[in-house]
């Protein structure tokens, strides 16, 4: 593996892509550090510290996580790439139900370019709405529980300036992400989110060190806890990698076809069905929905509704149970909207492919649907366990949230998924130049130039 890392610098094209990616990442971190004019960043920083101390289960905590700490500074890139991700998700879901978008998705490159254009338009609209809502919220610090003013000169001028600044910052990040995709390595948008999450790692390490420092001569955590945490990091990460890579291989046989003097088909291959087909999306959907009940119930007077609000607090048994059930639901919902067994069966039949032992057409579609339903259950249960695990660490074992969220949940799934994709991108360049990849397979041997 060390040899593979050294080989990445020997290929001029790959070296240029890696250095270009590092340069773009540096610019993205600058956008997360430059504050929006007219904001008292000290007061906002104090509030964000309180949010992190409350285990990060609020909407503000999740938003700050995906923005890479830019929200804490009310930076130019405070909205991050979340508006673009939200627009992409909305268009993906609408593609399954809107016939016009479904036809565009089947038109190849031209159709995808049209959908990408619609995604950008929707991103601008979401940026305007979210930027204005953020500006109004900052002008009313009492709603956030802050006793001091955050905005120095509130009014329509500040709101317009904030909307323009944050929208421009998000569009800039979106363009930088596309540049990473085209001229760098990996998926640019995912890489920007991952770098934002990893930016909290130094603070997590410092918080981990503070866990073992004695307070009034008594240490809350000892050597046994340290060994346990290290083992947890290893096994949880290994489990996430295994399930992320896990797939069921459906054998597919193509019949021979004679076209002129050429013979096509006749080979055997397989169709990979991913166990975790929905990725991190069910966790994001469930988190976004469960952030509202506590706020809504707390606004209704009466002891009953206050008890309901307390029951839906982050980390409680009620919250974790409903959270896990919603992840199961959204896992199947995402598969139902994105996985089309009828279309796959029709495409196989069109090109002369079939699953051995299964008749082409409707029986193949039913077989694929049944297989996907079964493996989705395993993936959904795994997602639910991984999502609830950080809350258990934070609430039951008093591990600081900034440390606990690296043990599972959205953060770990995104980091593992993006890192695996980036390694595959780099490895493809190495294999094309006859170098061994990160995992030697015994087929190719490296050369010195």
What would you say this structure looks like, in words?
It contains 19 helices and 5 strands. By secondary structure, the chain is mostly helical. It has 2 domains: 212 residues, SecY subunit domain (Preprotein translocase SecY subunit); 176 residues, SecY subunit domain (Preprotein translocase SecY subunit). The strands form 2 sheets. A 3-stranded antiparallel beta sheet has the order 4-1-5. The radius of gyration is 25 Å and the shape is globular.
Key features of this structure:
449 residues, mainly alpha, Preprotein translocase SecY subunit, 2 domains, 3-stranded antiparallel sheet, two-stranded antiparallel sheet, 19 helices, 5% strand, globular, disordered C terminus
Helices and strands in order:
Blueprint: H1 2-8, H2 12-31, H3 41-53, H4 59-66, H5 82-95, H6 99-105, H7 109-139, H8 156-183, H9 188-198, H10 201-211, H11 223-245, E1 247-254, E2 257-259, E3 262-264, E4 268-274, H12 281-290, H13 293-299, H14 303-311, H15 317-338, H16 341-350, E5 353-354, H17 362-396, H18 401-404, H19 409-432
Antiparallel strand pairs: 1-4, 1-5, 2-3
Helix pairs in contact: 2-8, 5-7, 6-7, 7-8, 8-9, 9-19, 11-19, 12-15, 13-14, 15-17, 16-17
């Amino acid at each position: 593996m060390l040899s593979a890392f050294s080989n990445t610098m020997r290929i001029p094209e790959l070296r240029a892509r890696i250095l270009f990616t590092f340069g773009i990442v540096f610019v993205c971190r600058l956008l997360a550090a430059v504050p929006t004019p007219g904001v008292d960043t000290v007061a906002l920083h104090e509030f964000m510290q309180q949010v992190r101390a409350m285990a990060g289960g609020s909407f503000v905590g999740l938003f700050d996580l995906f923005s890479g700490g830019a929200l804490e500074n009310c930076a130019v890139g405070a909205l991050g790439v979340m508006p673009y991700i939200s627009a992409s998700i909305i268009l993906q879901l609408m593609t399954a139900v809107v016939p016009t978008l479904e036809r565009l998705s089947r038109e190849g490159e031209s159709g995808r370019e049209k959908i990408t254009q619609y995604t950008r338009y929707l991103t601008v609209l979401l940026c305007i709405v979210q930027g204005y809502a953020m500006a109004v919220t900052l002008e009313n610090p009492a709603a956030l529980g802050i006793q001091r003013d955050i905005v120095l000169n509130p009014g329509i001028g500040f709101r317009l300036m904030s909307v323009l600044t944050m929208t421009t910052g998000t569009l800039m990040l979106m363009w930088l992400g596309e540049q990473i995709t085209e001229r760098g390595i990996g998926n640019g948008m995912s890489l920007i989110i991952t770098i934002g999450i990893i930016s909290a790692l130094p603070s997590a390490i410092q918080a981990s060190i503070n866990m073992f420092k004695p307070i009034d001569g008594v240490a809350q955590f000892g050597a046994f806890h340290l060994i346990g945490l290290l083992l947890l990091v290893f096994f949880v990460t290994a489990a996430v990698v295994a399930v992320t890579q896990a797939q069921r291989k459906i054998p597919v046989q193509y019949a021979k076809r004679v076209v002129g003097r050429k013979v096509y088909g006749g080979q055997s291959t397989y169709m990979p069905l991913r166990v975790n087909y929905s990725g991190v999306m069910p966790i994001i959907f469930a988190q976004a929905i469960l952030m509202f009940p506590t706020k809504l119930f707390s606004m209704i007077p009466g002891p009953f509704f206050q008890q309901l609000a307390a029951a839906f607090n982050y980390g409680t048994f009620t919250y974790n149970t409903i959270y896990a059930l919603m992840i199961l639901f959204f896992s199947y919902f995402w598969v139902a909207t994105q996985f089309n067994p009828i279309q796959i069966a029709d495409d196989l039949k069109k090109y002369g492919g079939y699953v051995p032992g299964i008749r082409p057409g409707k029986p193949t579609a039913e077989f694929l649907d049944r297989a996907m339903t079964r493996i989705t259950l395993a993936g959904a249960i795994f997602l639910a366990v991984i999502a609830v695990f950080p809350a258990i660490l934070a609430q039951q074992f008093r591990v600081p949230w900034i440390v606990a969220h690296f043990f599972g949940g959205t953060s770990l799934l995104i980091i593992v998924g993006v890192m695996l994709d980036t390694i595959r991108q780099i490895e493809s360049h190495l294999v094309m130049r006859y170098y061994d990849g990160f995992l030697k397979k015994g087929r190719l041997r490296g050369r010195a130039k």
